[in-house]
Amino acid sequence: GDRVGLFLPRCLECAPALYGVLQAGGVYVPLDPTAPPLRLQEVLEDCDIRVLVSVPLMQRRLSALLSQPTPLRAVVGVEAAEGLPTLSWAELESLPAHPSEPHLTEMDLAYIMYTSGSTGKPKGIMHTHASGLAYARLSSELYGLQPEDRVGNHAPLHFDISTFGFFSAPLAGSCTVIVPEAHIRMPASLGALLEAERLSVWYSVPLALVQLLQTGALRGRDLSALRWVLYGGEPFPLKHLRAMMSLLPRARFSNVYGPAEVNQCTYHHLQQPPEEDQDVPLGRVWGNTEFRIHDEQDRPVPPGRTGELLIRSATMMQGYWNQPERTRRAFFTLHDGKAPPRTFYRTGDLVRLDERGLLRFVGRKDRQVKIRGHRVELDEVAAALLRHPAVREAAAFPLQLNPENRTIGAAVLLQSHAPTDEPALRKHLAQTLPPYAVPALIRILEEFPRTPTGKIDHRRLGALVQKSLAP
C-alpha cells in the first residue's frame, strides 16, 4: 500500500518502475515531469510519498523539486539526490531478485492519477487492481489486440491513456512501443517512427494526430501496418479527422470516451469519414457498464433530451485520495427498490441519446454559460468556429467586459497561409449561431496554453484574454 512516485519522462524505465511497484504491492503515483516544483510538492505531501523513481535525465528538475521540503526518504534511478539515499539503475540491476508475494485483494489500490481540481488543488483519482484489470480486459477485447500487434504508447504516465499501453497491450501479449520524448516534439520524426516500428495500433489525443497530419510528412510513408487509430480526450476537429482518414484509408478509426475516473466507458467505430456538418458520437457504452442521463434534479431524461451522463462500471475509480467530501459529491447512489443500491459516477458531461441509441456529446456541465438569459454551450461555439476553412483550432470561454456585462470570448489558431480576420469569423458564426452566442471578442493567436496532456487549457486561455483587456 505504500505510494511510490514515478518521476519519469516517456522512456524504457517506465515499464520496470511501474510493474515493479505493482508487484511489490505498492501504489504507483505518476508525476508530471513538466509540472512546476510547487505542484509536485503538493502531490508528494498529499500522498505522503516516501520513495521516488526517476532517471538521470530528470536530475535538474529533481534538484529543483528537492530544494523544497518533501516527505521523500529515498530516490531510485539517480546517483545523487540532495543528500537523500539513492540507488542507481545500474546498482538496482546488480541486486539479486526477491520475488514478492504481497497479501492483496483486487480491491486494493494499484495507482493514483492526479488531475487538476476545480479548486486549484490537484485531485488524486484512486484506481484498484480490479478497475485496472477490467479496463485492460475490456479494451484488449474491444480492439482485438493480438500478440503480433505493435502498440504505440504516446501518452506520458500521468495521463490515463498510458494504461492502454502498459495494461491492455501486455494482457494480449502485444508489444508496446514507448514513444520517446524527442519524437513527440518533432512530428516528422514521429511519422518516421510510425513507419520504422511498423506500429499497428495507435492511441493518442487528437492534437498529436493533427500535428502528424500537418507536419509529420506522412505522405509517401509506408503505414500499411497501422490497422487501428484510437483517439480520445477531446473532440477531433472534423476537417482534420476527415483528412487523416483519407490519408490512412486502410486503418480503422474509433472515438474513445471516458473520464480518468472510469478509464473508458463508450466507443464509436467510424465506418467512413464524417460529413462536414456531422458530429462524431460518443457511441455506445462498452461491456460491464451501465449508464443514466439525469437532469439537474437527478431525474432521468427521455431519449433526445440533454442531461448529465452518469456511469456505473467495473472500470470505475474508488474515489479521490484524501478528499472524502469531493468523493461523495462525485457519486450518485440509485435506490429504486428493484435491486441493491447502485453507485454511479457523475461525469459532468452533458449528453443526449439519439434515435439510433448513440450517445452524443453536447458539452461540459461546467462549460455552459448563461448570456442574457440564454444558455450557451461554449463547445458549440468552438465547433462553429472550427467549421471555418481558415481555422485550425478554436476555443470559447466566458468573458467579463465590465462588471455588468458577462459575455463570450473566443480564440483561434489559423491554418498556415489561410488569412482571415475577426469580422470574417464573426460573419461566419452569425450564419449558424444565434446573436447572443456569437463571441463579443475573437482573438487570433499563435498558440494556445495547454494542459500537460495536450488539451487546450480553457481556464488559462480565458484568463490571458481577460488580462489583455485590462486598462
What does this structure look like?
- The protein has about 475 residues and is an alpha/beta fold.
- The protein has three domains: about 1-105, Rossmann fold (3-Layer(aba) Sandwich), CATH 3.40.50; about 120-370, ANL, N-terminal domain (Rossmann fold, 3-Layer(aba) Sandwich); about 370-470, ANL, C-terminal domain (GMP Synthetase, Chain A, domain 3).
- It has 14 helices and 25 strands.
- A seven-stranded mixed beta sheet has the order 9-8-10-11-12-13-14, sandwiched between helices. A five-stranded parallel beta sheet has the order 2-1-3-4-5.
- β24, α13 and β25 form a beta-alpha-beta unit.
- The longest helix is centred in the N-terminal third of the chain and has 14 residues, at about 130-140.
Largest sheet features: 7 strands, mixed
Number of strands: 25
Overall mean pLDDT score? 92
In CATH, the architecture of the largest domain is 3-Layer(aba) Sandwich
Count of helical regions:
14
CATH topology heading of the largest domain: Rossmann fold
Number of domains: 3
Query: What structural class do helix, strand and pairing data support?
Result: alpha/beta
Give the CATH superfamily of the largest domain. Answer: ANL, N-terminal domain
Top CATH class of the largest domain: Alpha Beta
Low-confidence stretches: none
Outline the fold blueprint.
Elements: E1 3-6, H1 14-23, E2 27-30, H2 37-47, E3 51-53, H3 59-66, E4 74-76, E5 86-87, H4 89-94, E6 109-115, E7 123-128, H5 129-142, E8 150-153, H6 162-172, E9 175-178, H7 181-185, H8 187-196, E10 201-204, H9 206-215, E11 228-232, H10 238-247, E12 252-257, E13 266-270, E14 284-285, E15 289-294, E16 307-313, E17 319-320, H11 324-330, E18 331-334, E19 342-353, E20 359-364, E21 368-371, E22 374-377, H12 378-386, E23 391-402, E24 405-414, H13 422-430, E25 441-444, H14 458-468
Helix pairs in contact: 2-3, 5-6, 8-9, 9-10
